[in-house]
Each structure stands twice: as C-alpha cells, then as structure tokens.
From TrEMBL, chain A:
Gene, per the UniProt record: nuoH
Listed EC numbers: 1.6.5.11
Keywords noted in UniProt: Oxidoreductase
Top EC group: oxidoreductase
Lineage, highest ranks first: Bacteria, Pseudomonadati, Bacteroidota, Bacteroidia, Bacteroidales
Keyword match Oxidoreductase: yes
Identification of the protein by name: NADH-quinone oxidoreductase subunit NuoH
UniProt KW Oxidoreductase keyword: yes
Superkingdom of origin organism: Bacteria
TrEMBL record, chain B:
Lineage of the organism: Bacteria, Pseudomonadati, Bacteroidota, Bacteroidia, Bacteroidales
Source organism of the structure: Lepagella muris
Protein name: NADH-quinone oxidoreductase subunit A
Superkingdom in the source lineage: Bacteria
Length: 358, 123
C-alpha cells in the first residue's frame, strides 16, 4: 500500500531545510488548517448533493437538474444564496448563547473530522485514546444544539432542543457500548492501531456474531445521533417548524445544516473505521494474490467508499421508515437497544476471553 | 503515525479547534458584509404561526426529559469506567471477566430498578 506519510515527511524535511523549527510547525499547522477547511467544505457540498439526488431517486424523481450538468452546480448556488441572506436579529434572545451555539456545533464536527483516518499515513490528530476523544468531542455538539434551542426564546425551538438533547444523550450510550464491543476485541483505542489491527480481516468478520450485532446497534444509534431518518423528531416539521434552528436565519442556519451533513459523514467514517476496516483494503486470510490486487486500490478510495456506502444506508433509512414518536424512540433505546448492547458487550468479552474469535 | 511527525497531538487538536472557530467567524464576517440589513418590529418577534407568543418562552419545562438526563448521567459515568477495562481486557483474563461481570450486574440491576419504578415510562 502507498504510504501518504512519505509525502508529508518530504514536505516536513523541505520546510526544515530553510526554516527554524517553530516556523516549520507554524507553517504546517496553517497548511493543516487550510486542508481541513477545504475538506470540510467540499464534503459538505458533496453530501448536500448526495442526499438530494438519493432522496430524489428513492422517490422516482430526478432531483436537481437545471444548474450545471445533472444539477452538479446546484449546491454552489444554494450555498451562495444562504450566504447573502439577511441575519435577522430577534428581540429577547440570549444574544451571547445564540451566537455561541453555531461555534460549538461547527467546532465539534471539525475536530471530529480531523481525527478520522483518511488513508495510510493520512491522519491528523492521533491520540492513544482516539475513539474516546471523538465521543467526548461529539458531546460538545449536543451542548450547542441545547443552547441554540434555549437561547432563541421560542417555544418550538425549546421543545426541539429538549427532544434533540434527550435523543442524543440516550443513543450516545448504546453508540459507546457498540464501539466498546470492538475495543474489547482489538485491545486499543488508538485509531491508527485500530486500522492496522484489521490487516488480516475486518472486525465485522473477525468478531462474527457480536460484531455484526454491534454494527447493527451502531448504525441505529448513529442514525439517532445525527437526528436523521426515522428519528428526526427534533426537526419534525409538521409539529415544530424546524426544531432547534427555527429562529436562525441566513448563514447562521447554514452552520447547523453543514454540521448535520458533516456529522453524517463522521458517523459513517467511524463505522467504516471500527467495523469495516477504515482505509484497510479487503483482505482474506490465505488468499495472497487477491490481497495483493486489493492493495493496488489507494487507501483513501477505500475509506471514502466505505463511508459513502454507510451514509447511503443511513439516507436510505430516512426515505423508508416513517418517523417514530418521542416515547417510542426513548423506550426503544432504554428498553431494547441499551440492554441488548450491554449483553452484546458481555458476549464479546466472553468470546475474547476464550479466544473464539478469528 | 501522524500526518506530520513533528507536531504534538495537543497542538493539532488546538489547530483543529481554531480552524472550526475560524470557519464560523470568517463565514459570519462575509455574510455580515454582503447580506442586506433591515429592521421592523414584526420581524424581530419570535416565530409562531402568525399569533403573538403568550407569556415567556424560557420557561420551566417537562420533567420527563430531566429524568432521562439523570439516567444518562449515571450510565455515562459507568460506561466511562468500562472503557479502560475494555482496553486491558485480554491481559486481565478470566478474573477480570468475573469482576466486570459483577460490575455489569449492578449496572443492569440499576437499569431494571429504573424500569420497574417507571422512570422509563413517558408521561
């Protein structure tokens, strides 16, 4: 497999050649910031088009077709339009919290994006508690949503934010437990080591039954975490107008919109990292020729392909299942998903302790 | 392996955080410069189907959410205890499995108690 780390260390050596060390670090940080910014924007634009096209195809429509070839430029038009819209200032809002909320939501998704492994040697933040760090940062996003709903001084936003908060904190438990099932098998939380541990076979194959159950739990919990699909109660438009971001206008609303799509990509990225091998190509033990052929496909293509596939499944949920009620949603989490994920964790621990996995 | 081997993770995390803040700040700045501005009393009212809002909106709210938040707090703290265990699980062996089995038993009993008491019932 090609290691992108060669390029980055070349770049590092090039800079070290004529700059002092602090300047090198500074330049590299700026380059990383620009790269993250570019990736964030491109992914958000891609995901808006992806969702619009997919939802159109699920309903036997064509989707946006007018602007550009197959409507490819539609998202740019939309983004520009959202940028030139007026930022309406409301009376009686809690101004500081109202403006703080988009910062929290966007920043948490940017930091999570910087944690994902994009390819062999293409990873920015690499703590040894990697996956735990991602979960911790994702909780900050919930805070932003709660603040947005509270500060808007509107009853719709208040109900939307409370629902969103209750939903996200509840499903975070089974999300964490599903990921923990895989950590029990791999024995590490470092993202890079997690990917390398799937060199022989992906975790979903290595851990057989409990890993498959954990994957299913994760997908359901991730759909709820991103406020999508059958769990889009915070934005139930016939009850709550637009949920927690009803009062936000212009680019302020755009931030919540962007963060929502980026969170969709991030949960898909974590699913592909933890269950489907991250950037690791499909390896079957014993089939050396096959494995070598698979290694020729670049690692970034593997990662993006798997992530887009998982996102496709989550978008598919949205256009297949009707929306659930709040009591159904909470009782589904606490009475079914949560005990199931606890038992699944114990099952995985027993399997690992006796060495019954691959 | 990091993208660039010379930078510490904390510096990278700070960079990513500043990137997020910078993104919001820059986009807001552009929007403030090019977006139109107008003022009217009606426009700054809270949105509510055309009728004026009755009373305050920042009110004390349904306790159902509060109970779930407390339950979350309990379980989240207990799952934080489970994370270190899950990393060292292999080296602990069967003894560790037994200990965590007792811990999980208490955890599940807590959930069962909350269930029995009707805390999971949406009222």
């Amino acid at each position: 497999m090609f290691n992108f780390g060669i390029w980055t260390s070349e770049f590092n050596n090039f800079l070290m050649g004529f700059l002092p060390e602090w300047a090198t670090v500074l330049v590299e940080c700026v380059v990383i910031a620009l790269l993250v910014l570019l990736t964030y924007t491109v992914l958000a634009l891609f995901y808006i088009l992806y969702e619009r096209k997919l939802c159109a195809w699920f309903q036997c429509r064509l989707g946006p077709m007018r602007v550009g070839k197959w409507g490819l430029l539609q998202v740019f038009a939309d983004m520009f339009k959202i940028l030139v819209k007026e930022l309406i200032s409301l009376k009686d809002t809690d101004r500081f919290l109202f403006k703080l909320a988009p910062y929290l939501v966007i920043t948490s998704s940017v930091v999570m994006l910087a944690c994902l492994p994009w390819g062999n040697g293409l990873q920015i933040i690499d703590y040894n508690i990697g996956i735990f760090f991602i979960l911790a940062v994702s909780s900050v996003g919930v805070l932003g949503i709660l603040l947005a709903g509270w500060a808007s001084n509107n009853k719709y936003t208040l109900i939307g934010a409370m629902r969103s908060g209750a939903q996200m904190i509840s499903y975070e438990l089974s999300l964490g437990l599903a990921l923990m099932t895989i950590i029990v098998m791999s024995g590490t939380m470092n993202i890079n080591e997690l990917v390398w541990a799937q060199d022989k076979a992906w975790f979903i194959f290595r851990g057989h039954i409990p890993a498959v159950i954990a994957f299913l739990i994760y997908i359901v919990a991730a759909t709820a975490e991103t406020n999508r699909g059958p769990f889009d109660l915070p934005e139930a438009e016939h009850e709550l107008t637009a949920g927690y971001h009803t009062e936000y206008s212009g680019i302020h609303f755009g931030f919540f919109y962007l963060a929502e799509y980026l969170n969709l990509f991030i949960v898909s990225g974590i699913a592909s990292l933890m269950f489907l091998g991250g950037w690791m190509p499909l390896h079957i033990p014993g089939w050396e020729g096959f494995n070598n052929v698979m290694n020729y496909i670049p690692s970034i293509v593997w990662f993006l392909g798997k992530s887009f596939f998982v996102s496709y499944v989550i978008i598919w949920f949205k256009w297949t299942f009707p929306r659930v009620r709040i009591d159904q949603m909470l009782s589904f989490e606490w009475k079914y998903l949560m005990p199931l994920s606890l038992f699944n964790l114990i099952l995985m621990a027993v399997i690992v302790a006796f060495g019954w996995h691959f | 392996m990091n993208l660039l081997l010379e930078i510490s993770n904390n510096a990278l995390a700070v960079t990513a955080t500043l990137t997020g803040i910078g993104l919001v700040f820059a986009a807001l700045l552009i929007a403030k410069l090019i977006s139109p501005k107008s003022y009217s009393v009606k426009k700054s009212e809270p949105y509510e189907c055309g009728i004026p809002t009755r009373g305050k909106s920042m009110i004390q709210f349904k306790a159902g959410y509060y109970i779930f938040a407390i339950l979350f707090l309990i379980f989240d703290v207990e799952t934080v205890f489970l994370y270190p265990w899950s990393v060292v699980m292999r080296s602990l062996g069967p003894q560790g499995l037994l200990c965590i089995g007792i811990f999980m038993f208490v955890l599940i009993m807590g959930l069962a108690y909350a269930w029995r008491k009707g805390a999971l019932q949406w009222k």
